[in-house]
Each structure stands twice: as structure tokens, then as C-alpha cells.
């Protein structure tokens, strides 16, 4: 690890004015600093700022940026009204890590592309302009949607996938004041600049994530991974489905493990609305969700895997017992 | 960096580079070598300790971030002659072979039982809104952050189930 100057922020404005790299739970930043993939000269500890509460706001919830993943998953309001979020959090990392990981840090965790971690190999995200080793290389953990010729990294967060299906809004305090950014506009696709991952600017501090009113219906989070627990997603599906008699009244879907950001496809959701659930309908939704996919040899399995994971998730959410 | 840590009921003053993790502070600076280093990257759980009552990976925490915190390591859970119920159960059930992962397993399980008592659900919990029940499946999921290279998992689960009931 490179040397750095450590200080603790005394207030949100103090943190924003510092323009330094923030440390919250430290579970991603310290890992990357040990590998010298990130080597900030100044680290400002925000973990004791007063941003660790979950409060009612309007018809929804305001989740402080420093709320720990374990506390968020266990919150009774989240379990009752936003169960897809509890489920996604509980499917991620380990009990120890969830006790440390924060809401803001989880959104900003960096990719698990193996070459990003291997400093002996070219990687445009780690060292812009050096090339991408994953294209034509080992791509099991990489993305098939939203990728570019410069980078095919996938976003590893489970929590962010649930936040996406719930239409969460990220509240940011920056040098120019407060902004509220819908999570769908928070991440940036790699294009030619895969090292730029979000719309945040230097000094910007995430202060909260806002959830709108609860979405009625069945909430599901299904994660497929290489071992039963404590592993990142190959593919995950977050679904909120409301039945209206025997047709689907409304459906929201978000996918993890497939793209550089939690992935949502409005056309796939629209195709489900007003329709009777069936295997053929779920297949049609999968066609739309996967439109434009650019798989590599090493991750083409994600296309059929997504199709099947979506089908079983929707069957469960629609109450079609016999399809599972 | 000057850091004050309350470890196993005693105050320790640490003067160390900001880069010092809690794990290295415990082992190298304070001589508390019960806590083990496996991967040093959050992937194995050997370094699990309790910070203000919660289980965390000491390898992914800076000592200076813990200034003023209460830390419990395996040395504070129990000692020869005064073992904790979990430590006794690990012996009774052969919950280890080489023993390298054991301090982390026991610290982790100690805090995990408090999490169950507080009603926290897990990935293995069927109904998020019903009281949590204990089962081998729940224990396996909740302990998945502690790897055992000797694969003593069945005995570890049995030991925890005996204490957790
Ligand atoms: C072994 C292992 C397994 C894991 N498995 C999973 C998994 O299965 N699923 C999953 O989703 N995650 C998994 N994780 C990742 C984990 O969820 C993240 O590391 C964690 O959520 C990051 O949060 P943090 O508070 O520790 O972030 P930090 O490490 O403190 O920060 C991460 C980044 O965010 C920035 N930052 C933090 N807070 C703010 C803020 N409020 N405003 C602006 N910038 C901020 C920091 O500067 C840094 O760049 C795993 C991690 C490990 C080590
Ligand atoms: S996919 Fe992105 S992160 Fe992985 S090697 Fe290519 S540029 Fe680097
Ligand atoms: S040494 Fe900390 S998790 Fe492996
Ligand atoms: S007893 Fe050897 S690693 Fe667990």
C-alpha cells in the first residue's frame, strides 16, 4: 500500500471541501489500495458522519449513505415494504463484510474483472489507454450488455440492482450544492473512458439514497453464482410483479452481472404488462432484455442463464408453481 | 498516527503508520496473535474480530478508523480454564483440524448468535417478516464468511447448533 495522509471528516461540508478520497466501510477501497490499483494521497474518513439513519421521507424512505448493509437488510420497513432490497443485500458478501459495507460505498464499489486486479496485465479501466485483456481473455465475470471495445467490465453490486428496480434516487452533496440523481442516470457506460464510472465529480459526497413509495406486488431477487454463498453474481434478476387477476398488472425488472451498471430494459417490462404469464411470454421478455448483447466466448453462457433465471423468477412472482 | 483501542477490556495506545490495518496492529504491534491472517483481502474470515460488538474483517479495517472503539479478539472470548460455551463446543465436536481458521470461526459465531437474537434475517431465511429460526442451513449461510481449508464445516455447524440450540 502506498503512503497516504489520513484524516477524519468532522462534517459533510468538511468532507466535500477536502476534495480527497473518502473511506466509508473500507472493504473495497482498502482492498484496491493494498493491490495499488488505487493509491490516493489523501484519505478522508467519513464513517463517523451523521449519515447513518433510515428515515421516512414522504411516502418512501431516506437511507443515509453510511447505513451499513447489514442494518439496511434487517430494517423492518425495508423487509416489509422493499423486500427485494433486503434479499439483494443478504445475497451479497458475508456477515462480516455487510457489517462494514455502507450504502454509498456499495454503489461505488469497483468491478471484479480479474484483469483489473492483476496489475501485470493491460486494463483500460485501471490504466487508461493500455488495452483490455478481458476481450478475448477470461471473461466469466464480465458483461455482455452496455459494453464497449475499450472495456467489458460488469458492475458487481447486488444492492444496486435492487435500488434500480425500486427507482431509487442518489442524493449528492458537492462543491456546487445538493443534487438528486435517479440511479438510472448515476452510472456511465464505458465507451472510450471506462475509468469514469459515474456522473460524480471530485469532492462529491453521496449523502443518502432515497426510495420512492413502496411498489406493490411480489418482490424477488434471484442470484446465480459459482458457490452457494459469499460469491459475486454471474447473473442476478430483481423483479417486482403485481398481478391483476390472471394478467400481469405491472412489472419492473433489473439485472446484475450482465452490464457495467445495474441493467433495466423498459421494453421487456412493457411486454409483460397486461399479459397472461406463460413460458412463451417470459421468453419474449428475455429476448427484449438481451437485445444488443455482445458476448465473448467465455461469457456467452450468460445469455441462456439469464433467460432461465428470468423465467423461474417471473414464474415464482406470478404464482405459476408448475413452471419452476 | 496515535490511536486508542480498547481491546478485551484494556486500553492500548498505538503509534503507527496510517496504513496499519487493525489486523496488523493486533498481531504485530500489540502481540495479540490469536487473530489470524489468511488472505488479507476479506475473502476468508480468519481475521474476524468484534468491533463495538459486531463481527468484521480486521484485514479490511484501518486501525486508525477504530480509534476509541471496543475490540474483542479470541483472547477476550475465553482462555484456558475459562472457555466460552462455543470454544468448549468446538472442542467437543472436533470443529477444527489445523486450527488456523478457528479464532475467526469462534469470533464470527459469537457475534452471529447476537445477530440471530436481534432477529436479523439471512439469505437462507424463508419469510423475511417472521421470527428467525435456527437450523443447520441458517448456520451454514450465516457462517459463509469463514472458510475452513480443512473442511471441518459439518463439525463447526454441529458445535454452533449445540450452543445456539
Ligand atoms: C470477499 C468479498 C466479497 C464480496 N461479495 C460481494 C457480493 O457478493 N455482492 C456485492 O454486492 N458486493 C460484494 N462485495 C463488495 C462489498 O459489497 C463492497 O466492498 C462494499 O459494499 C463497499 O462499501 P464500503 O462502505 O466498504 O466502501 P469503501 O471501500 O469505503 O468505498 C468504496 C468507494 O466508494 C467511495 N465512497 C464510499 N462512500 C462514499 C460516499 N458516501 N460518497 C462518495 N464516495 C464514497 C470511496 O471513496 C471508494 O472509492 C464483496 C467484497 C469482498 C471483499
Ligand atoms: S474489461 Fe475493463 S476492467 Fe476488465 S480488463 Fe478490460 S478494461 Fe480492464
Ligand atoms: S485475512 Fe481477513 S478475510 Fe482473510
Ligand atoms: S481447521 Fe484448518 S482451516 Fe479450519
Name the ligand types. flavin-adenine dinucleotide, iron/sulfur cluster, FE2/S2 (inorganic) cluster
Helicity of chain A, as a percent range: 25-40%
Taking all residues together, what is the mean pLDDT of chain A? 97
CATH superfamily of the domain at 218-323 in chain A: CO dehydrogenase flavoprotein, C-terminal domain
Write the layout of secondary structure elements.
The complex is a heterodimer of chains A (324) and B (165).
Chain A: E1 5-8, H1 12-18, E2 21-23, H2 29-34, E3 42-45, E4 54-57, E5 60-64, H3 69-74, H4 76-81, H5 83-90, H6 95-100, H7 103-108, H8 114-117, H9 159-165, E6 169-174, E7 177-182, E8 205-211, E9 218-224, E10 235-244, E11 247-256, H10 266-272, H11 279-289, H12 302-318
Helix pairs in contact in A: 5-9, 10-11, 11-12
Chain B: E1 2-7, E2 10-15, H1 22-29, E3 48-51, E4 54-57, E5 70-72, H2 74-77, H3 85-92, H4 102-117, H5 136-142, H6 153-164
Parallel strand pairs in B: 1-5
Antiparallel strand pairs in B: 1-2, 3-4, 3-5
Helix pairs in contact in B: 3-6
Bound molecules: flavin-adenine dinucleotide, iron/sulfur cluster (SF4) and FE2/S2 (inorganic) cluster (FES) (2 copies).
Characterization of this structure:
The complex is a heterodimer of chains A (324) and B (165). Chain A is built from twelve helices and eleven strands. By secondary structure, chain A is of the alpha+beta class. Chain B is an alpha+beta fold. Chain B folds into two domains: 2-76, Beta-grasp domain (Ubiquitin-like (UB roll)), CATH 3.10.20.30; 85-164, [2Fe-2S]-binding domain (DNA polymerase, domain 1, Orthogonal Bundle). In chain B, 33% of the residues lie in helices and 14% in strands. Chain B is built from six helices and five strands. Chain B has a five-stranded mixed sheet, with helices on both faces. In chain B, strand 1 and strand 2 form a beta hairpin. In chain B, helix 3 (85-92) packs across helix 6. The mean pLDDT of chain B is 97. Chain A binds chain B through residues 1, 3-6, 23, 25-27, 30-31, 34, 43, 45, 47, 70, 73-74, 79-80, 83, 86-87, 90-91, 93-97, 99-100, 228-230, and chain B through 1, 17-19, 21, 40-42, 45, 48, 54-57, 60-62, 64-65, 108, 111-112, 115, 118-123, 125, 128-129, 140-146. Residues 21-29, 31, 46, 65, 92-93, 97, 100-102, 104-106, 108-109, 156-159, 205-206, 232 of chain A line the site of flavin-adenine dinucleotide.
